[in-house]
Amino acid sequence: MKDKCPVCSLQKTIQLYPADVDVKKLSFTYVKTPNSGKTFRSVKCLNCTHVFCSPIPKNIYKNYEDVVDSEYLKYTKSIRESAKIILPIIKKHVTSGLILDVGCATGEFLSIAKQFGYEVEGLELSKWSSEIARKRKLKVYNTLLKVLAKKHTNKYDIVTLFGVIEHFQDPRLEMKSLQKLLKPGGLLVVWTGDVDSISSKLLGKNWWYWQGQHIQYFSEKSLNHLAFNYGVRHIQSKIYPFVAFYGLVENSLSRYKIRPLIMALLTPLFLLKPRWTFYIPGEMLWFGVKKT
Ligand SMILES: [Zn+2]
Predict the structure, then answer these.
(1) How far is the CA of 7 from the centre of ligand 1 (A)?
(2) Cis previous bond, 55, omega within 30
(3) How far apart are CA 146 and CA 151, in angstroms?
(4) Which of 48, 159, 28 has the alpha carbon at shortest distance from 101?
(5) How far is the CA of 42 from the centre of ligand 1 (A)?
(6) Measured in angstroms, how far is the CA atom of residue 169 from the centroid of ligand 1?
(7) Per residue in 131-142, pLDDT tens?
(8) Is 74 helix (H, G, I), strand (E, B) or coil?
(9) 2 within some domain
(10) What is the 16 CA–ligand 1 centroid distance (Å)?
(11) Taking the complete model, does pTM exceed 0.90, yes or no?
(12) How many domains are there within the chain?
């Protein structure tokens, strides 16, 4: 059977990596294990450069409902600080209105967005993290995008997805829903790894985005292609600001054998000040606008 690209539908592909993980052994949390870098069979589309797992594991979203991820809580401070850098960029495009954060987890981004004067809602499949968000008085839906899009067409001024689209089972179906949820002229903001970036090319299979729970690996070109087909036009790309604290960096590097060396090099930096913002090549922060 030929592999069909889930972005452009062509069947011109090459295999990048064979499968080395079983879906039953997958982790859907932030906990890094020796198995974290193992993936399903992945192939690259020679037309639009998109990389995807094929065959796609079935019913993958079911796994997210019961996720309890205390490891994620170590990252919340960093996510909030990154949000304080990203929201002024969003403000330049859309100054006020209603934000939907897809995959909002414990609501870190949304609570900062509220401080910036936006109205906010979230969508989250994990019951555990959405309950934490609700305790903060945030409105969170526990439903699939396609279900939400049916009821809330043309409702949102801004839709954000941070570390979410690499998990999509069917990117075209999801993009269709995202487009539907946005008002005409509304802003779509996506953070994901750029599989065509220098970091991806240099590190090969050791690139941090290669994880069993990731099944779509976008490039700027393939994301542009997908969005454009559903009436969302790319307007700019930036790099996600990763706000790092010493312990967090150490944690993030736990799958790499050279961690002690990197930490030895970074220690003097963190002695100078406890918090640094890193702009790491390949951490694509993509902005698009729905056609009016
Ligand atoms: Zn393609």
Answers:
(1) 5
(2) yes
(3) 9
(4) 159
(5) 13
(6) 15
(7) 999 999 999 999
(8) helix
(9) no
(10) 14
(11) yes
(12) 1
